[in-house]
Amino acid sequence: MDKETRLVIIGGVAGGASAAARARRISEDAQITLIERGGYVSFANCGLPYYIGGTITDRKRLLVQTPDSLYANLRIDVRVNTEAVSIDRAAKKVNVRSVTDGTRYSIDYDKLILSPGAMPVKPPIPGLDNDGVFALRSIEDMDVIVESLDRYKPTHSVVIGGGYIGLEMTEALRQRGIGVTLVEQTAQVMGTVDYEIATSLHQHLLSKGVDLRLETSVTSITSEDGRLTARLSTGEEVNCGIIIVSVGVRPEVTLARDAGLEIGPLGGIVVDEYMRTSDPDIFAVGDAVEVSHYVGGFQTLIPLAGPANRQGRIAADNALGRSSKYEGSQGTGICKVFDMTVGMTGLNEKTLRKIGSAYEKVYVHPLNHAGYYPGASPMTLKLLFDPNDGKVLGAQAVGTDGVDKRIDVLAVAIRAGMTVFDLENLELAYAPPYGSAKDPVNYAGFVAANILRGDVQIVNAEEVANPREDQVILDVRKDFEVATGTIPGAVHIPLDELRDRIGELPNDKEILVYCQVGLRGYLACRLLTQKGFRCRNLNGGIKTYIAVTGNAPKVAPKPSVPCNDSGVECPGLIPEKASALSVSSSRVVDARGLQCPGPIMQVASEIQNIKEGETLTVLSTDPAFMTDVRAWCHSTGNVLVEAAAEDGHFKAVISKGAPVQAHRAIPDERNKKKTIVVFSGDFDKVTAAFIIANGAASMGSDVTMFFTFWGLNALRRPGKVRVTKNLIEKMFGMMMPRGADRLKLSKMNMGGIGLAMIKRIMRRKKVPSLPELIASAQAAGVKLVACSMSMDLMGIKREELIDGIEEGGVAMYLDRAEVGNVNLFI
Ligand code: FAD
């Protein structure tokens, strides 16, 4: 290679800047010119949503390098605001144009590297060019989005597309206190994972107050007086102040195509394993190229920063005379979605099915670290592997903590060609705050290897949902777990009773066993198989069953619990003395900073993740918490072991259930039903109603909220919905607030100033917003009933209400109120 190679690089961000820096490290003599159409080079495009959301506060931190620093440190001639308009391959020249003054000139090259990235896909939606509709790709895009948000202060937004950028922007906008309608055309967000993994994200988005519309598309966008209206395929209209379009990207290949370089069937530049295009002196990298899939071997597009950076390095090596090979991309990715993380590597099940490859899968739901160390949280890990040799083909995980580490370990395992047997033997870093002696990755390996060794056979959720005549479903969980819901038709024999009660099972039928997450099902299967039964274990337990089928299991009627050997029931008896309990481990929920009903909601949710007899330690700064937690324990059969104030916070230690379960209170059905009539449409009153409803639901109550007259406004969709109305109905509709975000304070509203103040205080004190409270109430099973008579009187149509609302009349309300023991009128 000529010592003074003229290396020209087009595109100055991930792939291009990496190539330039690497080139200088290889050759001090090369003349390196970096051409960038935009005003910035080497910026952190992955960080843009976090600046918009306010997590990154200093804009300068996004600019990893500048033209000056690249020249000072690496003597790279950087030309920003300069567009490469054509390539003269015969003359080996790149023709460029200054974006600022239109000047044109050409640059000679010996070797050329293209890293022009990708363009956001523009879906064919009429009105996409309206002001206020944005895509996010560059610093310039980010700046105009931030400027628009700061200037117009929209209260609601629409995000089109639920991929990485759509999800990150949804979080960013919510972080700025803006309502989000997230519209996704398919049945799931984050299309790079399988549906049952995405369902956790759906729940989480709803709990964060996101108006998630799956299997819905935006059909048109209109603008009137600065207000945008997105019309949905469902016929509804959503009014908003800003729309973010994030439906994917396509390779930017105009320059390459015009220069006669080969473009592949997927629309990307064709390169060989040395990142060389069809012209031996031109290389291409990043989002613009088609790559070979490391696991599947097929050609694909994987627009991610890691591959772009590594390809940039490899292209620079080869352009300057070295020989480096790119081995393909495996699609390792990760995304933060509010408090959850979703990650993936290798092939997903959808792709394996599409390409017709043989595969097997397992689901495990381990904790991120030792359960007894505070803050442990469960994750769902799905492992796909070759049923013949156990080779790992792909993995996906979702959870609040520890997902990144497991996906990275599994990404390395795939690179190393490891099998599930290798996963069993991986020695991974362990101490209680970080992991478990059997790490989730080992654990997934054990489960998969057990299947391949023939120790257990598995059955998937789809089959259990539709059992045959010659199959019996067996639930081996404990009583209190069964009370939370069961698969219809299942026979219940707890695992520890199975040996004694094995005679109750038919030996001419196949037994489909399940437990909560799969472990006890496996143990039951081992027992049954050795006793001659045909038996399979439900893959991932009932937790995966719910995610796959979308069916919440049927809640079984409350078992009657005898309190003594004679079988006589003892209602209402709760042991007072904690000393009777064996406290096996404690998990800490740090709810400090959360306002009512946040802490008690956390308790209700976290108690699900511990076993009977284990304890939950809860820290809270909410003064109402101590009264709440006492009442909650009383009505749910859990035991308050300790209640104390220390170091500026309150501490409660709760023991789940009790080994003295025979003494557990059998709650009177009446005590579990609450009705709330929401007559008022005032923000403060409706908020109070939802705080009570959420609290009651978290204490296990069956809550019905009945919305009548002005209260109906809280249930209206924020956007304008096109429905047929007469003149009076239209006038009513215009005068009344549209949805929870538009309600006013009953007192001291002061033209909205008081309302803004109270909302700010709520945000600061971490009280969920009203839309979030509504979403969490719905997620907790609170029934929201719209009074059909009031709807008729006020001209409010069904389509104008948010999803999940039932319509009902007075009889329905009275029926529910009659069986309840609390009835509030707000
Ligand atoms: P880019 O980094 O996009 O650079 C291409 C550059 O080429 C552009 O600046 C463009 O202006 C310039 N250019 C194009 N044509 C010309 C021309 N004719 N003349 C001169 N210049 C030209 N990936 C991850 O792995 N993780 C993430 O968390 C992540 N988050 C992201 C968040 C956002 C908001 C965005 C937009 C992307 C994110 N990505 C993420 C994707 C990642 O940024 C890309 O895969 C990566 O930047 C691709 O690198 P590239 O060099 O191919 O293209």
Detailed description of the structure:
The protein contains 25 helices and 39 strands. The protein is an alpha/beta fold and 826 residues long. Strand 21 and strand 22 form a beta hairpin. Helix 1 runs parallel beside helix 8, helix 6 packs across helix 17 and helix 20 packs parallel to helix 23. The longest helix has 16 residues. The termini are far apart. About 5% of the residues have low confidence.
Tell me what portion of residues adopts beta-strand conformation: 15-25%
What is the mean predicted local confidence, pLDDT?
Answer: 88
The structure class reads: alpha/beta
The counted number of beta strands is: 39
Q: Biggest sheet, open or closed, and with what strands and sense?
A: 5 strands, parallel
User: Rounded to an integer, what's the Rg over CA atoms?
Assistant: 30 Å
